[in-house]
Amino acid sequence: TLNLPQTLWGSRVADFTDFAVKGNKQVLQPDDSVEYPIAAYTHESIEWLSSERVLVIGTSSTEHRLAPDEYIATDRLPKVSKMTDYGGAHQMPMFMGGLTCFVQQSGKQLRSFQQRSNMVLEEYESIELTWMANHMVNNLWIKEPYYALVPDNLAVMVREDGQLLTAMYDPSTGQMDAKDSAWSRQITDGTFESVCVIPTDFGHQTWVVVKRTINGVEKTYVEYFTHDFFMDSAMFTAPGATSTDTLTNLDHLEGKTLDILVDGAVHPPKTVTNGEITLDWSGTDIVVGLHYRPKIVTAPFTDGNPSGTGQGKPGRWAEIWCRLVDSAHPLINGKRPPVRHPATPMGETEPNVSGAVRVFDTGYNYDKQITIEQDLPLRFQLVNIYGTFMTGTG
């Protein structure tokens, strides 16, 4: 509360809405409500709580654990011990398996809070998970961290400028380390305002509130992510629909140029006019939505020079191999690997690839980076990158 920002309250046992002391205040009962101020040297308002084996308490300046582990009563008062001194923002933490993660008080870092596994004494530590992704946080506030365990072990949060940050991490793989997480950002035609993760019978769905400008008018949309479509704000025909070359009820995307899939084939983009579009050919399984172009850019490559560092020397990838899983061919440094195969009959969609594809001779430059992007509204899953590299020596 504003008047008692360092105080915890516990309700009466089995009466979770009753925080009042009953009867004679001088004769307390074990199941009476509990009020417990945290002792601190400075003003440390409680910003968040996390229920683990112990109760983790995050204040604006420190992180604490509350014991005993079994229960709390008026004759068994808790013991609160300070563990770390980082401080958290006024946001609920994210719980990843057995790991609590919270936004630091500055609002620009995401930190873990975990018990050290190799210590005899019970000690906790906090690791900044964003230190390898500072260029993605970009000194901006982040908010609303959530964790979608199934199927992708994906942490999601909103950046203050309307971009969505995601970090992949599986807490079951071992001790948490910042280098074990992989960060990316999602940019849409509009701004992400809010995010949450909702558990379902088949996994965790990530839902977002997005503001988009349609015909000069700002509108708010509620959307969710899916592995089935590869566009933003997508719509699709119902299973078993009759063949058609006209799609209606697209008023929410009026004036927007849409990506289109017709029976699995990429259709030329169309612009929504009066809430509808007319296709060049008809189909039954149709998906339309805003264009989204996923991109991966590697760090500059500085190896490959037997005489020393490759920095400051031109180099090129003579060939680049990308191993894909159930994916359409992407652009690799601006080149697309051969798409059509003689075994695929004309008029039929080329099947997705599970295996390695390559491009040749991408030219000399000083950064020696690899850029991979999917410019088509099709599936793209990249497993690894390898190739043959050549650089200047001396």
Commentary on this structure:
By secondary structure, the chain is mainly β. It is 1% helix and 44% strand. The protein is built from one helix and 29 strands. It has one helix at residues 134-137, and strands at residues 7-10, 34-37, 46-51, 55-59, 63-67, 79-84, 94-96, 99-103, 110-115, 124-125, 142-148, 154-159, 164-168, 182-186, 191-200, 203-214, 217-224, 232-236, 244-247, 257-262, 265-271, 277-283, 286-290, 295-297, 315-327, 331-332, 353-360, 371-373, 382-391. The strands form nine sheets. A four-stranded antiparallel beta sheet has the order 3-4-5-6, with no helix packed on it. Strands 7-8-9-10 form a four-stranded antiparallel beta sheet, with no helix packed on it. A hairpin with a 3-residue loop joins strand 3 (46-51) and strand 4. The radius of gyration is 27 Å and the shape is globular. The model has no long low-confidence stretch (mean pLDDT 89).
